[in-house]
Amino acid sequence: MMLSGKNVVLGITGGIAVYKSAELCRLFIKAGAKVRVVMTEAAKAFVTPLTFQTLTGSPVYDQLFIGSERFSVEHVGLAQEADLIVIAPATANTIGKIANGIADNLLTTTVMAAKCPILLAPAMNTQMYDNPFHLANLERLQNFGYAVVGPDQGELACGDTGRGRMSSPQEIFAAACRLLLRKEAWQGRRLLVTAGPTQEALDPVRFLTNHSSGKMGYAIAQAAAELGADVTLVSGPVTLPQPYGVDFVSVTTAQEMYEAVLACFSNMDVVVGAAAVADYRPGTVSEQKIKKSGELIISLTRNPDILAALGRMKQRQILVGFAAETENLREHALAKLERKNLDLIVANDLTQPGAGFGTDTNIVTLYFRDGRERQLEKLPKREVAIMLLEEINALLTAAEEEN
Ligand code: CTP
Predict the structure, then answer these.
(1) 333 lines ligand 1 (CB under 6 A)
(2) Which of 23, 103, 347, 352: CA 20 to 30 A from 97?
(3) Residue 109 and residue 142: Cα distance in Å, rounded?
């Protein structure tokens, strides 16, 4: 799991956004992190410690002067153990205290004793957020190296609309992962992912497409961004939310995807072609809606093969393709690896339950250029993404060592 062995202190201060902190806590736990929750008195007015105690399986820390079994001096112990402190929600009051060196509760004393990165997710009323004292405090903290995620614009609990809404748990989690893992392998690496289907118009209302949901490509883009890579996601039409922290390029047709990918290929270290690109498009696109009358024959024209084009142009880049097959998996996958000059191909057998289009899991076999093969068990697409990124990173490191 991506955050195994990482210790996260989740600081919770008093704001209505605390209901989102429970989800954030769960995301950390699911990723394998150990989470210790520190709550201020004001936070406990919004939600009881029991919620977080149940989620983390350990007591919530809220007392400055009462030691626990675990630490003799609570704030020092928590601070020393932490790889990251995330304060979500972070109120104007707590931000103001930290920015001015005030340490008057367990959370602010822990922050003062900490050497690890600190991430703040501000949440407050728009007027409070825009208050010059608050903005100066936030700027001061950022100048000292504190990381800040959000806030978002939008409707606030108090009825106002504007800046001040706490970022979503997923966005805070992604920012936290970047901080936790930033010294590690993916920092500074540039990765391009294609995802989703393409749509090839037949007339103004009809198009040819396929069943790709985009889930695998989006999982790769999201996980790579969390690991600290600079990610560009070129996506065909899907219904998934845009992943956080990636440069997003939206396309419709294979030709548009081809052009978008070629425009940035020379800057990339890795390209992962997870899109199910339509191999053909209608030879002509009717300007008017086609009316029914007897038999209709549509002639199709070949679309450019994006990965094959990259395979011909590649210099130092690592190219990764996908092969979704219904028969002779190994044979077809190896033929594609060769034909497109790839370094790695991820093959899945569409006939297996839990593999392929639309599902949240995948069952894949990795075939490498050097002849290695690795079969992965049935896993959530996110886990497949992380394992795939580990393998790609090993290929990048090996290539760098060779040069
Ligand atoms: N691909 C691409 N451009 C295309 C078609 C596919 O970049 N025009 C990429 C896909 O993103 C995927 C891999 O190539 O990584 C799939 O290989 P491909 O030979 O296209 O698979 P199929 O279209 O399934 O081929 P076939 O119909 O021959 O099985």
Answers:
(1) no
(2) 23
(3) 19
- For the domain 7-180, what is the CATH code? 3.40.50.1950
How many angstroms does the Cα of residue 382 sit away from the middle of ligand 1? 22
Amino acid identity of 13? Answer: T
Unique residue bearing structure tokens 């009323």: 125
Q: How far apart are the C-alpha atoms of 395 and 158, rounded to whole Å?
A: 51
pLDDT tens string, the chain, 403 residues long: the values are: 789 999 999 999 999 999 999 999 999 999 999 999 999 999 999 999 999 999 999 999 988 776 666 666 667 889 999 999 999 999 999 999 999 999 999 999 999 999 899 999 999 999 999 999 999 999 999 888 898 999 998 887 778 888 999 999 998 998 899 888 865 678 889 999 999 999 999 999 999 999 999 999 999 998 898 888 999 999 999 999 888 789 999 999 999 999 999 999 999 999 999 999 999 999 999 999 999 999 999 999 999 999 999 999 999 999 999 999 999 999 999 999 999 999 999 999 988 888 877 788 889 999 999 999 999 988 888 889 988 998 999 999 898 888 7
User: Which regions of 230-363 does DSSP assign to beta strands (E)?
Assistant: 230-235, 247-250, 270-273, 280-282, 300-302, 318-325, 344-349, 361-362
Tell how far the Cα of 390 is from the centroid of ligand 1, in angstroms.
23
SS3 at position 399: helix
Fold of 190-279+299-402: Rossmann fold (3.40.50)
Active-site residue (options: 25, 158, 177, 264): 158
- Whether 307 lines ligand 1, by a CB cut-off of 6 Å, is yes
Residue whose CB lies within 8 A of the most ligand 1 atoms, among 262, 279, 330, for a mutation test: 279
C-alpha span between 76 and 332 (Å, rounded): 58
> Is ligand 1 within 6 A of the CB of residue 322?
yes
Residue 400: CB atoms within 10 Å: 10
Q: Cα separation of 121 and 269, whole Å?
A: 32
- CA of residue 311 to ligand 1 center, whole Å: 13
One fold for both 7-180 and 190-279+299-402? yes
pTM of the model: 0.73
| Domain spans of the chain, in order of start | 7-180, 190-279+299-402
Counting from 1 in the atom list of ligand 1, the atom nearest the Cα of 309 is 7
Catalytic status, residue 116: no
